[in-house]
Prior knowledge:
8 helices; Undecaprenyl pyrophosphate synthetase; globular
Amino acid sequence: MSLISSIFSSVRVPTVKELKKNSIPEHVAIIMDGNGRWAARRKLPRFAGHKAGVEALREVVKTCVQLGIKFLTVFSFSIENWQRPKDEVNFLLNLFLESLKEELENFNKNGVRVFLVGDRKLIPHEILEAFENAEKKTANNNKLFFNIAINYGSRQEIVEAAKKIYKAAARNDINIEKLDEKTFSDYLFTKGCPDPDFLIRTSGEYRVSNFLLWQIAYCEFYFVKTLWPDFKRKNFLKAIYYYQQRNRRFGRL
């Protein structure tokens, strides 16, 4: 059991009303890990774990809207995930497609704006078209900005940002001597989003796996052994309670 899990395993699940409204994180990032292990423990195919993971995400999105969290960024498919067996990759891509179609009405009803975060060049046309359609149809929603990271790798994102900045400087669009952190951030996939306040990783792994490396510089971390399909509303509320116990000083006393 992780240190955080051991401290908070006995904590009563707080209600939404019990959480401090002035200490709700603006931006939560989640590494949704453990779908395969969840399925293996139940002697089910890995596909079943991915489907159960979608249900867990649905609950978390609803809870974010209820809590007033403005930004949610989830790691759905990394650049490295293309190395998985072809049938699993195809299943995941089709699952993205089905889930988007099923949830689009709920996104609009709940004020959720969808945005694809990642390198779009390698994403199959049908999947990319579905995401861009969801982006267009939810563009006026503003309760929750829901970033879905697909074909995403943070080191690659930073390299691409450096290339874009170099080209912009060559065109005299920016003064490279005046390049600052804010300007650099504007060349990342997450342009326009505040940096995450809180990063959650499930399944007991203690690493960030090439996720939002630039953006999580001052993030609070929460690692738990709970496998992602089991990470439901109560687990998320406990995580937010943990966040509210932190004293975020940003280098100050």
